[in-house]
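ok so I'm stuck.
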Amino acid sequence: MSSLTGSNRVRLKNELERLRGYPYKALIAECSFDDINQKNYRSAIHPNTVYGSLCSWCWKYNIPVFLAGNKSTAQKIAYTLFNTFINNQLKEHKAINQHLQEISK
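replied:
not stuck anymore, here's the structure
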C-alpha cells in the first residue's frame, strides 16, 4: 500500500516507466478496494487520488492493475498470470513450428 500512497510512490512510477518496454506486465497490489476506501494506509492521500492514479497508470503504462487484498492472493494472481503467459508462449511456439514444418515440405 505504501507504494501506492506513500514515499515509495515515486519509485513505483519509475518502475512503471521501466516496464514500458515489456509486452507483458501487471501491477499487483496486496491491498483491497476496502483498504483504499477506508484509508487503511498512513498517507494523507485521498482514496479518490489513489483510484485516479491507478486508472491513470493503467492507461499511461498500458498495464493491468490487480488489487489482491493480501499477500497470498497476490501470489496466486502472479502465479496464474505467469502460468498463463508460459502456456500461451508454448502454444504460439508450437504453432510456429508446425507452420515452418508445413512450408518446408
